[in-house]
Structure formats: C-alpha cells, structure tokens
Specification:
The complex is a heterodimer of chains A (106) and B (205). Chain A contains 5 helices and 3 strands; from the N terminus they run E-H-H-E-H-H-E-H. Chain A is mainly alpha-helical. Chain A has a 3-stranded parallel beta sheet. Chain A is globular, with a radius of gyration of 12 Å. Chain B starts with a helix and ends with a helix. In chain B, 80% of the residues lie in helices and 0% in strands. Chain B is mostly helical. In chain B, helix 1 runs antiparallel to helix 2, helix 2 packs antiparallel against helix 3 and helix 4 runs antiparallel to helix 5. The chains are: A mainly alpha (106), B mainly alpha (205). The interface between A and B is medium-sized, with 23 and 25 residues.
Chain lengths: 106, 205
Amino acid sequence: MVTINIAKDFSITPGARYKSDGPYSGEEFREKYLEKYFAIDGNDEKITIVLDGTAGYGTSFLEEAFGGLARKVGKEKCLARLSFISLEEPLLIEEIKQYINETTKN
Amino acid sequence: MRRPRISFIIGLFLIIGFICFLSGALWAKWATVEPTFFQIKITDIAQVIFPLVIAILITYFLNKLMSSTIHQREIMVKLLEQIEDKIRCIFENGNAYISNHQTSTPTPQKLAEERKIRGFIKHASSELSIFFDVFNKYDFVNKRDKDLLINRMKSNFLNIKIALTDLPFGVYNGNGYTNEQQIQFDLNYHAILCEIHRCKIDIYS
C-alpha cells in the first residue's frame, strides 16, 4: 500500500488547477504523484491519500487532481484504488468522490 | 441544569416542612390535632405519602429530561451559529477577493486573502462535519428529514465553495471571475443561510 501525504510530500499550500496557473497545482500533483501508480496495467496497489495538514484545498486543485485522474484512467479504477484520510475536514472525501463520479473518461 | 435543582430544593423544603409540622405537633402534644388523628394507621399515612413521593420524582425526572433536551438543542443551534459566522466570513472575504483581484497578479495581499478564505472554508467544513455527527445522534427531526437536511446543507456548502475556489481562485495569470460566477456565489451564500435557518427552526420545533 502506498501512502501520499499531500502536506508532507507535496505542499501545505496546494494551488489552483493547471501548472500554468501557478505553483503546486492539481495538475502537477496528479502528474507527479498519482499517474505513475496507474501507468502499469494490472497494478491494483491501494493508494492512501492523507489530506490533513494543509492550509486548505480549492475546488480547482481537487477537481483537477482527482477528477482529472478519473478522466484519464476511469472512475472505477480511481474509486477502487484510492482511499482518503481527512480527520480535519471529513467532507473533503465526499467532495473528491463527487468529482471522480462526475467525470467521464476521455 | 438549573431547573432540576430548583425542583429538588422545593421538594426538600416541602419534606422538611412536613417533618417540622409533625414534630411541632408532637412537641405540643398534638394540641392542634384532633384526637381521631391518633387512630390513623401507618398504612393511611403511606397512602398519602407514597403518591406524593412518586409525583415529586416523576416531576423531577421529567424536568431533568426536558432541560437536558433543551440543552442539547441549544448546543446544536450554537454550533449552527458558529458555522453561520464562518459562512459569513467566507462570503465577505470572498466578495472582497473577487472585487479586489479582477486582474490576477500574485501580490502579498492577494496571497494573504486566499489563505484566509481557505482557512474559513476549512473551519466551516470541519464544523459542519461535527454538526452532522451530533445531529445524527439525536432524534429532534425524523430520519428522512434529517437525511434531506444534511444532504441539502452539504450540497449548498459545496456549491458556495465551488463558486469561490474554482478558477480563477489562486490563479496567477488570466482573467478574473465572470459575472455568472459572482451571481452563483451570491445565490449559493443565501441558499446556505436559508438552510441554516431552516435547520434551526427544525431543531426547536
């Protein structure tokens, strides 16, 4: 099982949607930390994302990171492999799952 | 918690008064009591005292139960008021952010405002979770209405968050908020406020 702690591994101030919007964007997080685990077919390793410890998340970051991943690899894979921990803001988990569920694969 | 104490004190005074009356009567050699009083059996006295004690106890426990329910409701409403304050802060700071930064340059002021808004959203979200947890434990509202209310509040909160923190929030280049986004932000703010007030009424009804 892989654990990604956004505050420790990425940034305590996650930014906006695209890399062109500024530093620590959702796109950057997705490309650097998430996509590599979905690149190999047949890999069903569970990935736990720890959301606590940051200054807070904007919608654009969350949608691009997790909704964007679902658009690339499919929402079923995302929901099956990703799990989230958020003790500070439990509603974030529902929010992310909503973004994943609302996507259609490209 | 004051009411049960008062009823307890009143009950205690009544019992003490009753005892004092009996001892006074005894001391005065039953001067004020009819001679037939001595013919009263202990079962007759018990027949009077027993229902009296039961009535006092029932009143005491009902009172305690009621005041604890009222106390729980008050806590829930206080929690809602805290959430309302945070939502108001999100709205006021969000409005200032939208009008101050229609051109997106990463000034220290802009970054500080973004940090503030993220903080308010985080706190509101956290308080909402606590509220839902507590709200689910009590039966002030029936299950169906409770679920509806929670879903509506969640969805309204998410909508106001999306309206403010989706693009162009935190963007260091490009355009500012569109008119449509500003209208949505305003509408979602009022929708969540209405929901909070409706919830307060439901809790007290």
